[in-house]
Model the fold of this input.
Amino acid sequence: MANWFKQLNLANKLRILIISPIVVMLAILVTITLSVVQSNMTAILDEQMYSLAQLNQTSVQSLVDGGVNVAKDLQAYLNLSLEKSVYNPAETEYESEVYPQFDLTGTFSRMEDYYINTAWSAINDNPDLASVGLYFEPYIFSDLPYYGAFIDENAARSYSVSSITNGTYLSDEFYNYTKSINSPSITRPRIEDGQLISYISYPLNIKGEFVGVVVAELLVSNLGNSALSSNAYETLFSAVLTSELEILYDSEDEAHIGMYISEFLDDKQMATLNQKISLQQEFKIETTYDDGRSHVRYFLPVEVAGELWWAHVELEIKEQNSILYQLIFTNVAISLVSLIILVIIVGYAINRTLDGLNQVVQVATEVKSGSFNTGLVMEKSGDEIGELATTFEEMAHIISVIVQDIENVLGDMAKGNFIIQDKIKANYVGDFAPIKTSMLSIADQLSSSLKDINHAAHEVSVGAEEIAKASTDLVDATGQQMEILNSFEETTNNIVDSINKGIAKVEQTNKISIMAR
Done:
């Protein structure tokens, strides 16, 4: 283990050993959780976007179906009536509501009434329906040279009907194109009187031969009334596309109406989009504009008069991911806060638990310094630390008593009292037992040695007295000898003087002799 870890105190070591596995497990748990959450959130967001796209699809389909159903209903009734109708000029006894100057047979009058009442009811009940028209080939409707009737919102409110006074409708797109294909059709949206409109035309036939059309005029502008709005997404937009991917409606910018989606995507992305469009099923695709913005787009088909329109919802991927990032950030933040709280709680618990151990260490330090008169001021617990504290306190007490006991015994011995058997009060347990034995042995040996010293001292004292007496006698004898010696010295000195004087006389005599010669 690293040296730095060894240098840490026990509390920090326990923190690391306890918190590290928790951090690892929490990291693994958070990673797994975020992975699952990301997967689930992606699925949820997809589901949510599909739901919004379905809502857009439903709105478009509802708008279209309002006109389609009226046109289909009139087509079915009129085709059936036309199949059974036989024009007889003698039976023209009913005045036409559309062309009052003409009379109609009962069959054609009933067809006209059915058309008028159906149109009134449909327009008044459906705000997305601008008008309903009925147009025939020349001399088909009760042998009239032309027949063009339409009912708009004003006519429906006033329960009236408008008529075409000439055959100009025969060249209109909604009529001429439907005649050419003899199938239901819908015109490209165009602006009339400030409104974006589109015509749905259903052909009328007698024995398979084209004889006229029923036309429902749709207010495509009303798609804006059902535009998706969400406070949660700023870049969420809805649109409606035709089968040629022309934009009929775009909640992001009305200027996009009439443009094609190919004007926003490159060829590679359009190839992928067209491939998915060809499957005629709902799908999701990610695209990128030239400015780098990426979108996730959801397409759902809308069936319109034999064509397939597309309800479209788009959202910037950046914003979509921001929801995931926010969720990830929230989870990470909660995890970090939880970890911090856990660290604080664990740290507090460790400090609380090891508080007694710190006191034990403090007391051990004092014992190490030679201070045994200490005690642990702490609440004893039933765990190992509490047991350690109790044991250490008992150990310190035993050592303190033994030291005090040794101090007392040595004090008595210093005073000359070597009878210490009754003075030893402490319990010399374990390895302390030899100390007691040694003290008793030392006391006995010192006591015996002192007895021998006392005996020897007594004998020395007796010998000393005899030596002292002998010394006194010696001193007296020495004094007498000194007097004798002094007398002897004086006598000797006198003899020397006499000799010296004799020698001097001899020498003087010798000199006189010599001179006498």
Notes: The chain is about 55% helix and 15% strand. The two ends are 130 Å apart (CA to CA). The mean pLDDT is 80. The longest strand covers residues 195-206.
